[in-house]
Amino acid sequence: MSEGVEFKTTQSVAIKRWGTGAAHDERDWVIAEVPIALVYNGISHVVLMCTPSNIEALAIGFSISERIVDHMGEIYGIDVNKTAHGIEVLIELASEKAALLREKRRNMTGRTGCGLCGVESLEAVVPAPVHTERTFDVTDAAIQHAQEALSVYQPLQLETGAVHCAAWCSADGEVLRALEDVGRHNALDKLIGWLHVEQRDTRSGFVLMSSRASYEIVAKANSCAIHTVVCVSAPTSLAVEFACSANIALIGFARPGKHIRYSGTNEVD
């Protein structure tokens, strides 16, 4: 793995702020958004528009959530390189996984909020859900505790107002780790990567997203046996259907004093 490559996550820009009938010259902070190319065994596979932080975790999480690999042991190395046009991440896969990827490789450009660009057929859009064994039923108190604390773990959002967050929470709602990115899917991939690097039991807690619950958020959680997904905004119909099929507890509109359970409402035995 590459050693601690760091990039700027925010940028100061000149602005003219208007308010109360007058304009003022000031400076403001905006979130960095750069193209990050994931290259597997020398073959460019995808370009993601991301915030350039936790890049190795992003590469690991994407590889797992997109089912390119089954576990970290099938990733032999990751090198992160800055180029004139963005960031290139060179990922060395086990030979059998590299061969499988070459067979099904698709030209795909990921954009913020779009994770299905380049899928070649309707059949490839929604893979069959994997039934998840829920080890606990998240309590209303835990959901409320986590969402109330989330803003403390979003420094880039506080600074720029343009960032999503994916947080890993304990069963009782304590936020254990939160990772930010301009794209909600990227933030979750970073979190999935962190969970695997830290060898966390993905059935011991739940994910809290500072976004809506799209199908892809639920599918990515399903890829690594996360059984509970909480989002601060609404779910989509496909997200609810997938969650029900996979036995994932899906909670939306997690706001102060309220939330809605869309699936997984039964108690765990």
Q: Main sheet: which strands, in order across?
A: 9-8-10-11-12-13
Largest sheet: 6 strands, mixed
Class derived from helix and strand content: alpha/beta
**Share of helix, binned:** 25-40%
Number of separate helices = 7
Beta-strand content bin: 25-35%
How many strand elements? Answer: 13
Distance between the termini: 41 Å
Structural account:
With 269 residues, the chain is an alpha/beta fold. 26% of the residues lie in helices and 33% in strands. It has seven helices and 13 strands. A six-stranded mixed sheet has the order 9-8-10-11-12-13, with helices on both faces. Strands 5-6-3-4-7 form a five-stranded mixed sheet. A two-stranded antiparallel sheet has the order 1-2. It is flat, with a radius of gyration of 19 Å. The chain starts with 9 loop residues before the first strand and ends in a 6-residue tail after the last strand.
Write the layout of secondary structure elements.
Blueprint: E1 10-19, E2 22-31, E3 34-40, E4 43-50, H1 55-65, E5 75-82, E6 87-93, H2 95-104, E7 108-109, H3 140-149, H4 155-160, E8 164-170, E9 175-181, H5 184-197, E10 205-209, H6 215-223, E11 228-231, H7 237-246, E12 249-255, E13 258-263
Parallel strand pairs: 3-6, 4-7, 10-11, 11-12
Antiparallel strand pairs: 1-2, 3-4, 5-6, 8-9, 8-10, 12-13
Helix pairs in contact: 1-5, 5-6, 6-7
What's this entry about, in short?
Helix content is 26%, strand content 33%. With 269 residues, it is of the alpha/beta class.
